[in-house]
Amino acid sequence: MRKKIALIGGGNIGGVLAEQAAYRELGDVVLFDVVEGLPQGKALDMAEGAPLVGADSKISGANSYKEIAGADVVIITAGLARKPGMSRDDLLKTNLSIMKQVAEGVRDNAPDAFVIVISNPLDAMVYTFKEVSGFPKSRVVGMAGILDSTRLRAFVAWELDVSVKDVTALVLGGHGDTMVPLVRYCTVAGVPIEQLISPERIDEIVERTKGAGGEVVGLLKTGSAFVSPALSALEMAEAFLRDKKRVFACACLCEGEYGIDGLYVGVPCVMGAGGVERILEVELNADERKLFDASVDHVKELVSQLEI
Ligand code: TXD
User: Fold this and answer.
1) Which of 175, 180, 185, 233 is flagged as catalytic?
2) 110 with 252: CB under 8 angstroms?
3) Per-residue pLDDT for 307 more than 90?
4) Residue 175 appears among annotated catalytic residues
5) In this predicted structure, what is the pLDDT of residue 27?
6) Same structural domain for residues 96 and 170?
7) Residues of the domain holding 168
8) Is the pLDDT reported for residue 1 higher than 90?
9) Is residue 149 domain-shared with residue 282, that is, in the same domain?
10) Total structural domains within the chain
């Protein structure tokens, strides 16, 4: 019996999620959107291509939440994306009302699902979903740090002309300009990058990581990154579905961890069949702690604007 994956939002990221989840046979896929025909058309196209990849997952499109009944995993991209000149926080008001609607739909139709929120502003949207749905914190997580860490890994690999496979990285904090790339924990096959790259170049790479989302928005002009976010969320979904105990930076509900009480913030966690199974508290030096606390303060301020 294949698992069921519901994708709420059939836009740029939702489309890549549906294609990759189905073609990798992570489970049967239901692509949900409010636009009539959009999810159905995308699903039909992907289903017709399945013979070419030999994938037998069922792919369907839906405009009714009834179609997501019993989903094991729900990945949410519903909401507006940034345009050039916009910050992620500018999306708060519009995406807040959408997220409330989505949370009710998921709560009422897929009450046992593991939920990955992608919509921006991420830290506020995942908090909103948790508050409205009432799901346990282990089953509600935000996708952000894994993407930011992946971007840092790519930049380091390009700098050193080494395989992207051999670079590891951790980016913590809020998913925005205050995110905290932890240089001390970034390595190439275990070798700290500070032994391989000059301080000046490391600073430039850190700044590029923090601005990477905006860099793509500036080039695309009509929307934001969609392939790397989708693949990041699929790593999380696969860790849950296949109980892989992966360690990622994700937006998790911290209740005491890192001295945070009751906020979703990007921290390292272990992800498996229990969802967010535990949060790893890594040692932060004084400078890292200062940056992390500033990022947490920004998330706190953003969440304080929510009227849930
Ligand atoms: O790292 C991250 N978390 C970020 C997240 C990385 C990149 C993009 N980030 C955010 O994801 C972005 O700022 C947006 O808030 C979401 C989705 O981005 P995407 O690029 O997929 O946006 P699209 O292409 O506009 O798709 C959004 C879809 C679109 O088809 C709408 O019709 C649909 O959302 N939508 C809804 N679906 C369900 N229910 C409701 N109410 C709804 N409203 C709009």
Assistant:
1) 175
2) no
3) no
4) yes
5) 98
6) no
7) 145-304
8) no
9) yes
10) 2
